[in-house]
């Protein structure tokens, strides 16, 4: 039995897609953002499928298995992703199925690649009684981690807007994938200006859509909140150039940009 300090719960807003067969990794390698050559059995990585224009259609966590991969994905995106991947599969020997008998479980398993502050994750055939969807969202917001379906939707953001590249979700050097040309051009030209940041308010609770400003300069909008903690997609170039401290609804707020390592 799990200790009370480390609860195990299922995530009701997540679904499981299984992709198996001898061509699984080769087929996905040319389609999604991550490097499937690194997706060995027992690994957990982030990844996404993009539009040709480089925006996120949906993102997911990728569990490596001996005969393929398992995608931990927002439930509302699962069926649409299966249809898209089936089109991209062409003649590859890979089966793509929604596994309704498997559940995404948090609190045990492998380290979440997005942040050490988040619970471990696994795919299980037994569903824990407790639904931890709300608790998981609170932990993600506190850790500065945005999520599809909460902070952004289909074709709304570039992967860099939501920091997918910062936790290993984009393999810049693996070669072509859908949307790769646009992202590579942004990176080469230094035009990555937006990032998701953690926001801490002193008293008032931020609400989705609230605008963070520096003086009269808008920096960006709140995308989700939990108490006084929130996430926002901001223009970091404007934040860096600002001569006044950032405020939200007239109140000073603390902005914590994600750590960005130089290449």
Can you describe what's shown?
It is a single chain. By secondary structure, this protein is an alpha+beta fold. It is 17% helix and 33% strand. The protein has 5 helices and 14 strands. The protein has helices at residues 24-29, 78-89, 133-143, 180-189, 236-241, and strands at 9-10, 14-20, 44-50, 56-65, 68-74, 95-98, 103-110, 121-124, 194-201, 211-214, 217-226, 229-235, 246-248, 251-256. The protein has a 6-stranded antiparallel barrel. Strands 3-4-5-2-6 form a 5-stranded antiparallel sheet, covered by helices on one side. A 3-stranded antiparallel sheet has the order 1-7-8, with no helix packed on it. A hairpin with a 2-residue loop joins β13 (246-248) and β14 (251-256). The longest helix has 12 residues, at 78-89. The chain is globular, with a radius of gyration of 19 Å. The model has no long low-confidence stretch (mean pLDDT 94).
* Unreliable stretches covering 5 or more consecutive residues: none
- Strand content of the residues, in percent? 25-35%
- Main sheet record: 6 strands, antiparallel, barrel
Q: Order the strands across the largest sheet as they lie in space.
A: 9-12-11-10-13-14
